[in-house]
Amino acid sequence: MSKLTVKTNGVSKKMKTQLTAGEHSFTIDEPDSFGGTNQGPDPLSTLLGALVSCENVIANFVAKEINFNLQGIEYEVTGELDLRGLMGDNSVRTYFEWVKIEAKLNTTESEDRIQELRELSDARCPIFQTLKAAGVDINSHWTKA
């Protein structure tokens, strides 16, 4: 297996989008204050959630490869963007200026091994690398829980 094709379908009504990905369905919406119906997370929170999930999957792949005792990870991811860009100001970029990843690992491994896992995971995570390629300042900080 050298290539993966990913497909998601969506049906939108106003700000709310009902999505299907394979056998799964989910809703992405905006809060009432932004014109939505608040029936699901907003797209930006969903992107950060996808980053967490992708980092976790890759970390588990890598942990197995390097014989790392990984029992779980707790993430907190924060991002900031300037709303003027998405509201139409062409002088302001429309995507995150920065993203901060705080990961607390449940492990018996040393801090050096945790940093090895972080570096390998960040380098292989498609969503992390997509944000990095877009020029988003990403600060990834992993520690023992």
What's the short version?
The protein is of the alpha+beta class and 145 residues long.
Number of helices: 4
The spatial strand order of the largest sheet comes to 1-2-3
Helical content, roughly?
Answer: 25-40%
One letter per element, helices H and strands E, the order comes to EEEHEHEHHE
Strand segment count:
6
Q: Describe the biggest sheet? A: 3 strands, antiparallel
- Hey, roughly how much beta strand do the residues contain? 25-35%
- Overall 3D geometry? globular
C-alpha termini separation: 35 Å
3D architecture notes:
This protein is α+β, with helices and mostly antiparallel strands and 145 residues long. The chain is built from four helices and six strands. It has a three-stranded antiparallel beta sheet, with no helix packed on it. The longest helix has 23 residues, at 43-65. The termini are far apart.
Question: What is the topological layout?
Answer:
Elements: E1 9-13, E2 16-21, E3 24-28, H1 43-65, E4 70-80, H2 83-86, E5 98-107, H3 111-124, H4 126-133, E6 137-144
Parallel strand pairs: 5-6
Antiparallel strand pairs: 1-2, 2-3, 4-5
